[in-house]
Amino acid sequence: MSGINYSYGWACCVTYQPEGKLIGWQESYGVELEIATFATSAEAKTDASDLLKHSVGYSVYVRNLCLFFYDHSISKDQFTGYSTVLSAVCL
User: Fold this and answer.
1) pLDDT tens, 4-47?
2) pTM for this one?
3) What domain of life is recorded for the organism (predicted)?
4) Pairing between strand 32-37 and 66-71?
5) Which residue, 31, 43, 64, 72, is most buried by CB atoms nearer than 10 A?
6) Residues 6+ apart with CB under 8 A from 14
């Protein structure tokens, strides 16, 4: 579990720590994005619900063991690109 870096309030309000780690970055167009991976899809769904309850201006997308936490101001085209990648790696 070492190496997990919570940001944007994760440490305050999530039920599960992402066993597969969490990565966050800021895109060149200024929005913050994070991807976390979990031991089970139930954990990812629980944390998605937790994050939505305790964050403002962010959205979540869960695909199997992956949770994508993102600034909801991203465009539909940008989201489509991210979800396509997640669909390929989060089987």
Assistant:
1) 677 666 778 899 989 888 888 888 888 888 999 999 999 999 99
2) 0.87
3) Bacteria
4) antiparallel
5) 43
6) 6, 47, 50, 51
